[in-house]
Each structure stands twice: as C-alpha cells, then as structure tokens.
Amino acid sequence: MRKPLFKTLLCLSLLVPFTGNGQDKNALEAGFMNPAEKVQTSVYWYWISGNISEEGVKKDLYSMKEAGINRAFIGNIGLEGIHTPYKTVPFYSEEWWKILHAALKTATELGIEIGIFNSPGWSQSGGPWVKPEQAMRYLASVKAEVSGGKQVEVVLAKPDKDFQDVRVIAFPSVEKKATRLSAANAKVTSAMSLQNLNSLIDGDKETAVLFTEKSEKPVAIDFRTDQPFTLRSLQIFPARQPIQTNARLLVKENGGYRMLSEFKIDRFNANLNVGFDPYAPVVISVPETTASEFRLELANTASGMGLGEVEFLSLPAVERYPEKTLAKMFQTPLPYWHEYQWPVQPEVGDPSLVIDPGKVLDISAFLQGDRLIWKAPAGEWTILRTGMLPTGVTNSPADPEATGLEIDKMSRKHVEAHFEAFMGEIYRRIPAEDRACWKVVVQDSYETGGQNFTDDFLSEFQARYGYDPLPFLPAYEGYVVGSEDRSDRFLWDLRRLIADKVAYDYVGGLREVCHKYGLTTWLENYGHWGFPGEFLQYGGQSDEIGGEFWSFGDLGNIENRAASSCGHIYGKQKISAESFTSGGTPFSCYPAMMKQRGDRFFTEGINNTLLHVYISQPSEEREPGMNAWFSSEFNRLNTWYPQMDLFTSYLKRVNYMLQQGLNIADVAYFIGEDAPKMTGIVDPELLKGYQFDYINAEVIERDLFVKDGLLTLPHGTQYRILVLPKLETMRPELLAKIKKLIEDGAVVLGPAPKRSPSGESFPTADRQVEKLAGELWSGLDGRSVKAVKRGKGELLFGMTMEEALKYIGCVPDCGLPADAPVLYGHRSAGDADIYFISNQKDEMIEIRPEFRIRSRQPELWDATTGRIRTLPAYEETAAGTVVPLKLYPYESAFVVFRRPATKAEGTGLQLNYPVLQTLVRLDAPWKVSFEEKRRGPASQTFARLEDISKNENPDIRYYSGTIWYETEFKLKKKPEGELYLNLNDVGVMAKVKINGQYAGGVWTAPYRVNVTDLVRKGKNKVEIEVVTTWMNRLIGDSGLPESERKTWTPCNSWKPTDMLQKSGLVGPVCIECVN
C-alpha cells in the first residue's frame, strides 16, 4: 500500500471544482444579509374541494407577498369528508375560471411566480378528459386451448369494452403436459381447526379458507398425494381480503421436513395505485422436487385473512411474475433499494414444459371480430388474445367533476393531449398579460402505480433491445419462455424500458410541450405508491426537481437524497423540497418545531424551500379557517403568520448560500441498472464527515469522465470514488465505460459483475461482461489482495469505506466525532468554501470540527440574523482547519472560508464565543395586551412573566393570537461592546422594539436580539410582540357546546383533556453585554 500523504494533499488541492471566475466576496455577503427577490420561497397553494373565492385568493396573495413568499403552486385538491359552511365552486365552472383569472392577474401585479399542478389532485396527470385509449394500460389476455391438424374456430371474447387488441399468439401447449394437486389426487389437513380445507385445491378461487382467529404459532397446512408428485411451482391466490404473513414451503422426506422456499404472502393493500391486479397470485419457483407430502406454513395469521386457492404445479412458472410485470407493486410508501430485485430461479430440467420462443406464432390475421378461424398445425395449442386495458387509476385526490383516468406515462402523444386539455386551456382562456406570472407546470409525487404496455410498445422494444418481444408475451402470464433465465431477462428489459419511457416520454414529453408554451416543469423525482421509474433518470428530464419531508417522522429520509443526488449529477442548481408537512395535530406546529428536519435536509442538498401548505381561505369570518389533516398552516389566518417573515428570511439566506457554486461530495454510489428504483444504497457505509450522491448508469455512460484523478461531470461536480453495488449483473456497455474511467485515473470500489441482466445480445453480452470483469478484477480477491492498479486508476474490492478512503488519502471533509449530533453540507464557489453546520439535538453542544480547508480564515455567518463575524480561534493541521464552535439547541450556522488566514488568536472556544454578562434583568411589571377580536381579555399587568397556558384565568390560559408586552429599564451608563436583549424562552415567536424602533425577531434558540444601536443611557422602553399558535384556543373551545364555539376549522381533533402548549413570553428577559 502506498503512503497516503501525497494523495491527501492532492485531494485537498483538487476538491475546489472549476467554476469559472471567483465569487465576488462583497456580492456573496450582500446576497446573504439581504437576499434578493430572486431567492425563492415557494408554497403549495391548495384550493380545497372548491372552497375558494375571488376575494380570498387575492388576500392570500397579498399576505404571501408580505411574508416573503414569492412563488406559489396552485393545486386543485379534492378531499373526502371535508364539510364547510362555504358555497363551493365546482372545478372548471365559469366561477372557477373567474377566480383563476383573478389569482393569476393579482400574482402578476405582485410579482409572485405561479406554478399550476398539471392535473386536479396532487397525483399525478389525469382528468375527465382522458379517454381509455389514452390512459395508463396493461397487457391482458384471453386464453383458449385447441387441438390442431385442422381448421379451428374459437370465440375469444373481449374481457372488457375498453380492450384494445395487441396480438393474437399461439404456442404448443405446455399445460397439457402438466399436473397439479387437486381434490381428486390429494388431501388437505391441518392441526388447526380450519373449515373446507379441500377448497384450497378445488380449482375455484372464489371458495376460500378464512382464518377466524389470530394465531401466534405458525399454522401448518399439509397436502398429501396418493402418488409421488413432482413440484416445480407454487401459486397462492389470496382470498379477496388483505393478507400479510411470512410463509414457508416444506417437503416431507425421510420422516422430517426440508424447507424448499421461504417467502412473504403480501397482498395487504388493494389500491390500484400499487398494482392493477390487487390480489394477484403469489408465485414461487422451486427446484424439481418429487414427494408425496408438502407443507405450507404460515406465520402471524389473523382473523379475516384467507386463501382462495393453493396451486401445486408440475409446470414451472416465472417466480413473482405479477411483481415483475408491475401487476402488483411495493405496497407501502418507501420502497428501498432492493425491493425490485429477485433471486435467480432454478432452471427447468424438462424442456417440454417450457415454451420454445421459436414456436410462438403470430396469428392475429385470423381474428375476425371475436372469432378466431385458423388452420392450426398438428398438436395441442394454447392461444392468447392479448390486448391493453386501462389500469383504472385516476388522478387524486380530486373532486368528482375533476376526476378521470391517469394519462399514459409512456406516450408523448397522449401526454401532450392531456396538457392541451388542461394547461393549454388555461393558456388560451386567460389573456397573456394577466397570466404573465404563470411560469411553471407542477408534477407532485408519483402515486399512480405502474403500467406495462402502450401503443407501439412491441416495435419500440425491438428497436431498443434488438430482439422480438412477441414470443415472450406469455411471460406476462407467468409462462416460462425459453428458460427461467430468458424469461427473467425479458421482464428485466420490460421494466427497464418502462422506466426509460416514463422518464423520457412522460417527464420529458411534458417538458417538451411546456417549453413550446414558454413554461417550465417542476417535479418531485420519486414516487410513494407504485413508482415504475428510476428516480434519478426520472428527475433528470425535468427542468426543476424536488424532494419532500414532514416535520416529524420518517417521510423525507430517502426522498431528499433522491432529489439532491439527481440535481447534483444532472447539473440542476436549485433543488427543492416540499417542506414541513405535518399531520395529526392541527395548528400545533410552528417554525421552531420545523427547524431540525429542515436543517437536516439542507445538509443533504436541499436549497430551494417549498412550504407545505397554504390553504386558500375563502373568507375571514371563521377562524382558524380551512385546513387539512396533513398541513402545517402557512396561511394568513394562522396566529403566527404575521411573523412569518422571520422564518422566510432564514430560509432565504440558507437557500441563497446553498445555491452558490457546486456541491462537494467525495463518494458516488452507483444505484444499479434495475428498475423500478426509488432510492440507492450506501454500502459499504460511509463514515461521518463525508458526503455522497447516488449516481445512475445513464450519467456514468454519457457524462462521466476523469479530470486530474477525479470523477468529473460536465457542469463541474466531482467525486473521489465510485462505489458499485453488490449485484451480479451489469450490461457490457456500462462495464466498458467503468473500465475506461479506471484506466483514465478513476478509483472504483466494488465487486465484479458476472453477467448481463438483459436479453439484449444474449448470450454474447454475458461473454463480454465475463471478459471485461476478468480483465479488471483478475488477481483481486478482496481478502489478501484488495487493490489493483489498472492504467492510471485503481480498482478496490473487499474494503470498508474507511479503508478505501484512507487508502486513497481522502481525509474527512468535516471531521467530527462519530457520536456528535451534527450534520453538515459543503458548497464550493470560486474562492469561497461554504459549510452549513446543523445541531440536531435539543441542547447546547460544543464541537471542534476539522474542515478540509487550509490557509483561510473561518467566519461565522448566522442565517437567523444575517450577521457575519470572524472566528479568531482556530488551529491549522496537516489536513485542514479545526474551528471551535458552540451551537444552541437545533441551531445551525455557516462556516465560510473566503479570505487568506490571519494569525489565529488562539484555539479556545471563548475567543469565538465570548461569555455574555447579564447587565439588567427586566423584572419590572409588564403591561400585557391581547387582541380583542380573538377574545383576549382587557390589558393586564404581569408582576412576573409566565407561560400563559398555566394562568388561572381561562381567557388568558386558552388565548391564541398576538400578545403585546411592554416594560422599561434604566441604564446608568451604556457600556462598550455588543448589547443583546435575551428573551430566553418564547411560545412561539416574537418581534422586539427598543425605544420605538424595530430591533429584530426571534423564533428559535438562542432567543436573543442585538440591540446595541438602539439602547441608550437612562430610560429605555421595551415592546415585545409575541404570537402563539391556535392550539390552546381550539382545546379550550372543544369543551364548549358546539353552538358556543367561536373557532371553526374542518379538521380538528383537539379534546378538552389535551395538554396545552407553552404560550407567551416566558423569559426571563434580560439585557446582556459582551465586549
């Protein structure tokens, strides 16, 4: 192993990417302190179930302008169960058009940019204008068995009026040679008391065995045959009830049981957006096994679960073919990296049980209406009339008059027709001068499931892969064509082509038609329910992309890295996120509660905040007004909204800084080529102090090159190391490109692929992969030899990331202890290196991060205040610069290196954070005033500050709104140095005036305002305006008879027994001084 010193220095010197001319230091400062209008703060603007008005949308927009929101995305959302006293406005009615016109005209006047969801509902692209032949479709079939050697006539009736013929095919029957367990040759028993067990093998999927009680122990069901039976596949058809259980298939041999397969029976979500065949069979392939007794063992059964049919077949089947054809997809919102990967299937020893692709005939010409008249060759034949049917998925959630089928995601023609029916109609109906604000067409998160066919799909498939897909169409129904391996390769190609077309024909097609109209696209580049694409490629075809996160919980944990990685590898400067969604407790959330999650995803690369959600308020007579179960209430009727600018100023500063230059990440994790794909995998795990992106095959093959030993993309993003996933497959074209990258100087870590996953150029492609892998990995066993030099680069195998990074001399970019509750992000912009540091813990911490920067002066840039100061204490090391930092609970800060270093004054924390001395404690009585319109009491005098939710007076205890606190203090002498007003504790936000002049506001720790220039010798007046949430008032009103409640909101779960929220100015308040 070579000594790493040279590599370390090389790493340090090269990690400033080429960005053209250096960033102007004064411009960077000015942009941070006072972010320009071009720094967007966006909001989803939901028009809920027709509860809108012309006056309401205008007031919404004016309030956005005041709060610093300068971009709004209009979503026409329909929610079931929303009951309001307002007159609703039907979608597409003349009144709706009038309101939309007023909104666009007002936004144009105010300079607020508008985006419009490209269909009603947030997912995804559909409406009542979509015809069945334009919709998302899947390949269905009608089957018949005939004897040949004569002319046959058979009726193949369409299964549905919307059935569109594709091909009629025939192939020598394999089913006639197969046997199955049935009531005639087998008996079904169980130690558990289950009724009608023989119905599991009666050939009728509608006769079900239902479990009537929960069982903690596995339930064993035994299938005994009169004669030995050779099993090759098992198909389990659930009763049409949700079922989720672990299962084992066992065979009885020599008096004991041997496991053949362990699998899940997972049909617990019947919604069409996770599969157009909700209760598709669970299909398992096993090696040929001959026996007289088999056992199906089910764990964790529950009452109501059941099985419709259990088919033990001597005929092989394509394992999990419903999943492999997207008929049934991952059923929860977060499909991880491995979800659409399956093990290699056992091959079939008897070729007569496998369809020979050379004997599949296209007999479409012989179909006349529903009647097939065909002179069939001798033998037994299976006939499939194949055709397309709509998946049935509709745009949602939308009002009934706004709901229709989802548009075909694999057809540019149909996507354009959908655009013209909605977006195009807006363009034509509203005058250009009034819709000048409309710039963006929005595609929210994908939640509409898969499709597996479209117009001209067969010809496109053949053009893409170079072989005819028609002989492999029986694989859609689980038949094995050619071999288990060939069938899986065909279905791999099918899924990959679907993903490619969803990216280029749907996302790219919509972008193309938008550009014709002078519009751009904005897309969340992932999907929660039935996503059929590849997340990086999917986002790569949109003008803008976005992630998503909730203020609490796990949603966002993979979505935002998906968005930021896509932005970084495709060269997108702005990476949005639908931010701060919140559910369950209406009007309880406020900016300080949102900060931890927001800052976390800033460190992952999000840099263009999109607030979720501003729900349009049709009137002001009812407060808090319109809401939804999923909202953080960013709207003008929320009590803390008047101080929203404090939060948006912070967001703008952070976004501004994180949009500068290029993201710095050391590692690119390749996600693999298979699809669907919602996220990548970090394996081997990356140590703290480094950043990474996911990267896909398209970008590697097309764009990636080596510059000065670094993997480089055309827009300048660079990586030190490319990590390959632990997969056995890779197409030869990609492997050849990786070989060239290594030879040109790249460092690659990972195992050797063994074969191609595709049927393209089979079997030549496999031999090419084997040859290339042999040339690269020869002599590299991952144990005794873990690194080899190939050309100018190196290939590593069998190393942890710690070992690999140490080997190439790449020290941490932001060195931190492994247990430090700190996250970071890094941008490089010309001469400036910008680090964003976030304390993710609800307590103050002291840290000494080591930044991979040398000979430059550290500065602290505070995004909550816009203030910048030099950090005089730091220590240079061989690898970088150690800077002592102190962060308050959930505090974040920028550490910026942009100037040559001056001599450090020391290394102690107090040099960077001088101790604050309490000068005056404001213990004098406080005059406290409340809003009369929100049922506040008359002005009060508080002898001491308190959390008003603990006040004995219910008018104060349950109060929600603005509270004004006033007091005075005296200074005999104004001291030298900085003076601060420290509020210490506030529920929930506050703005401060000193002697009648605005000093600033607080919304997160430290609750402190610089008042140096406003305080004077002698008497000083302090005014503090505090805003609360609506939560306490809603709890208080919940104890009143409904007729006496003054508050109204449609989604309100609060009860009188719920705990009240801290509210008001809690303090203690004091004047602090630092020299």
Automatic annotation (TrEMBL):
Signal peptide coordinates: 1-22
Residues covered by the Beta-mannosidase-like galactose-binding domain: 956-1031
Organism of provenance: Parabacteroides merdae
Pfam families xrefs: Glyco_hydro_106 (PF17132), Glyco_hydro_2_N2 (PF22666)
Protein keywords: Hydrolase, Signal
UniProt keyword annotation of Lipid biosynthesis present: no
Cited PANTHER family: GLYCOSYL HYDROLASE, HYDROLASE, FAMILY 43, PUTATIVE (AFU_ORTHOLOGUE AFUA_3G01660)-RELATED
This protein's name: Glycosyl hydrolases family 2, sugar binding domain
Molecular function via GO: hydrolase activity, hydrolyzing O-glycosyl compounds
